[in-house]
Batch of 2 targets.
Target 1
Amino acid sequence: MTRWHDLASLAQLEMDGRVVAHLDGREIGVVRDPASGELWALRNRCPHHGAPLCLGSIKARGAGGLPGSYELGERRVMRCPWHGWEFDPQDGRCLDDPSMRVATYPVRVRDGRVEVEA
Amino acid sequence: MIDCDIHQELGDVEELLQFVEPAQRDWFRSQGPLLGLPGYSWTHPASWFRQDLAHQDGRPPGANAAAVVREVLDPLGVDIGVLNADDALYVSLMASPYRAAALARAHNDWTRDVWLGQDPRLRASLICPAQNPAAAADEIRRVAKDGRFVAVLLSGGSERPYGEPRYLPVFEAAVEFGLPVAIHSGGEGMGLAGDSGGAGPPTFYIEWHTLGSACSIMAHLVSLVVHGTFDRLPELRVLLMEGGLGWLPGILWRLDTNWRGLRADTPWLKRKPSEVVRENIRFTTQPLEHTDGHDKLLMEMLEAAGAPETLCFASDYPHWDYDAPAELLKRLPEGWRQAVAHDNAAALFGQRLAAVGA
């Protein structure tokens, strides 16, 4: 059974960019995209090598057309702080290795509090 | 059987010089038997060549088509033998791009007019002055019209790894004619080339033969992939020759791992590098590492890197580290042998194997 957990105040999250909490033996983090203000909740453990994933960065995934060209892609990704693998913060898929996926959770803000369903 | 690597040695220098434009003949003649081609700073401790092959008139074995027919094609039952320049491959490393272009032209014409007509089983790779890519592309377009040239041959030793965009005209010209580009180890640390292995020049031949010849091939593989050469030219096929194979799965694992974490530098790479390699790159088998009883492990490693589709047989006649086809093939799983001995190379060289002259 899942339930909603109160993690932090939105003001705190806006200041720190992320918040990590222990919920029923799991570390779950909520990260805030500094560009859009969007919030995502992910398990704070990179499935590749166990890094604290939510301490990485939310950024635009680089996109390339022709070799030698650099463009800022539309897509936002969660980039692991250790080896730099990139994950879709929405569904948790590793964009460069389909066999890797991190758990993601519903997140909401109620009365100025950030809550995660896990 | 298709033998992808039969070396043509410089034998009768005067015969070759007849194909050099008259105004340059004296310069080449004055350079001695290597015609101004650069050399290594170390040498083989015994002989570069198989010692059982008779040296004719003081010339090395493999110095004429008759020797190739007598010592390779007939006794080994070779259906198609691809001639690859030996010393002349290093035109790309000569200081003068003009001398290099002249010697490449002469060698290609010599191959066409003196060698290829002597047996219908013979094909050849063409050489080009890669230090001047525009001239190299011109040479490819000039020579490739003769369908008996089945590949463009580049040396492992180079000024920069071949994915660097300056070399694109060479690869574009090859693709224009449906020719694979064969990169054969050799020339590392020679003339214009960077050193072999990145740790400075080696002292001994054993260092080069263990490392230098493999490191350049690894460098070209990685460079071609990360520069997106196969994204620009999806039809391009590359044959990596004589750089060893045991390292291949390790390099592909490293490359795939790094691609996931370091994509910011090369965001144009859409596909996993090892997949690109499997599709676009082939490898010759010689010299297949001796494994001290671990052939099963080697085969598993090769399979992890795409074998058997990725492997093409090569003997490397007349060099000392020659692989005899019967001995080589029996080390491979039975189900691989037909693909490695013939089918993979037949697919790589394609239509040109049916060519019978210009």
Target 2
Amino acid sequence: MNPFQYDRASDVSAALMARTRAGAQYLGGGTNLIDLMRETIEHPDVLVDVTGLSRDIEETNGGGLKIGAGVKNTAVAADRGAAAGRRAGHGG
Amino acid sequence: MRWIVNRREVEREVDVRTSLLDLLREHLHLFGAKKGCNQGACGACTVLVDGERINSCLALAVQYQGREITTIEGLGAPGALHPLQQAFVEHDGFQCGYCTPGQICSAIGMAAELRNGVPSYVTTDLEAEMIALSHDELRERMSGNLCRCGAYNGIVDAIHETFSDLAAPIPKREAA
């Protein structure tokens, strides 16, 4: 794995700002990034960790869902609103 | 950098590239979690973070500062085995034992998911408050933990016996 600078985003604006730096990438769950970094397929200079950001799943007025950057797939699967969408045939 | 590992606070300065698995094994000398594939496919490195199961090989140690990490060493000890460890012994849930710490941590995380009503691909009732541990649910939910000795029958029996309380009928959620 190539060396990189680790940057934990404290809020959304900090995360957006950090992403403008050259060679910056976001780190969410890590499943599709850490292993690729290990094989040097991906080699970010700055890794912006957004896992500390919102873990909220909110229903929007239009009947949609707003899923925070820190929400894991497991949480989406367990969410009743997302489950309702799945039952209605929208998405996975 | 600080972490809480098996209820004890530990402090180490490690390279940011260090995986949580390498922190545990190489720096803290907790050799229970195993490095099988090192790419999230085998589950031998499964540990619990704040009670949730994760593949520690795909996690950077730096990400998990301040979090509560539980490895197999924190679940039981010789002479004071966790009930699931005891059940693995009684049901021949292993041959070589390489996958066992991951299997056990994973099953404990799985039981918590069932209690919290977290559905899986085979769950039919997405409204259930709690999900019963059926044979299909168990096999689906433990599919991320491979056993190349093929001790699956014993593993399944051990998990079923330990979490027999989860085999009960599913209480329905009250209508919203």
